[in-house]
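Appendix B, Record 12. Input sequence as logged:
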Amino acid sequence: MLNNSKKKINDHTSNQPVNKKTSISSDSHIDMPPLNTIIQPNQTIVSGDETKMHLLRHIGSFTRQIQSLCDTKYKNLNLQKGQFMFLMRICEHPSISQQDLSDLICVDKSTTTRAIQKLERDGYIKRERNPDDSRKLAVLPTQRGLAIYPELIRFELYLLRMLHKEVSKEELSMLTAVLSRFTELTNTNMAIHEQALSQLEIKLATSENILGECHAIRTEVFQQGQGVARKIDFDGRDDLASNYIAYFNHVPAGTVRLRSVSDTTVKLERLAVLSSFRNLSIASALIEYCTISARQQHYKTIKLHAQKDALTLYIKAGFQIVGEEFYEANIAHIKVEKAL
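Logged structural output:
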C-alpha cells in the first residue's frame, strides 16, 4: 500500500510538450482492451492479436536485414546507417527542402538534419538558398554525390532481383499495395500525433487552484468512473508529493503525482486522464515527465502499483513486473518498477 514518507519531490523538469493513450487506477489505468492472457513476473506480454504483432516484427526484421546488407556494401563510402537513402533521394529530387526530404523518407526533422550534416561534411551534398524563397535552404547533390548514385541504384536493383527469384509478381504487387497502405496510415497517424503533442503542456501544481483541477480529474476518473472511495483517493499525501497537471489546448486533461518513499526511490501515483482526452498519449507523456524529473533529482528507481488492465502502458515505458497480482481499492494491481 502507500508509504507515508515526509520527503517531498521538487520539480526540476521544464514545462515541455510530451506523448498517446490514457486513463487511471488507484495508481493508474488506461482505456484499452484487457489483456487476454494472465501475466506472470518476467513473462512476455501478449495482447491477444498475435498475428498483427508478428507482422510488425517481420517487417522490422526484414528492414534491419536490408539495412545490414547496405551498411556492409557502403562501408567504404562511409554511407552507413541509412545515409545512402538520404543521398539517393537528394539525387532524385535536387533542390529538395529538408522538410520535404523528411516527409519523403518518413523520419523526423532532427534525423534529417543529422544526415544532411554528415553528407555535407563528406562532400556528397551541399545546401544553397532556395531561389524561389531565400528564407529556405535547398539541398542538392555535389558531383561526388552524383558520381556514386549509379552504384547505389545498381545495388538496389540487385536486392529487388534477389527478391523476385523467390516471390511471384502477384505476391510482390500485393505486398506493395499493403505496405503503401500501411505507410499512408502511419503518416496520417503521425501527423495527428504531432499536432496533439503541440497542444499538450505539463506543469507542476503550484497553487490551490491548479491542485483543485488535479483533484477534479481524479474525482471524475477514480471516484465516479471506477468507484474508488474518496478517502482512498484523497489520502492526505498530496502535500508530500509533486502533483502535475496536463493541459490539452489549455484545458485540464490529466494528472499524476510523484512521491518520494526513500532517498533512492520515488512512487508514481494517481495517474488519471479524462475520457474525452484519451488516445492522445497524455498518460505516456505524464509518465515520461515524471521519469525525467525523478532522474534529474538523482533517484535510482521509480515504482508504482499498476492496474492490471493498464499494465501494457507501463511495460512500453520500460517498467518491469516485480510482484504478484494483488487488489487495492477492489481493483487488480501489479507492482512494477523502473531503474533510472
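The two ends are 22 Å apart (CA to CA).
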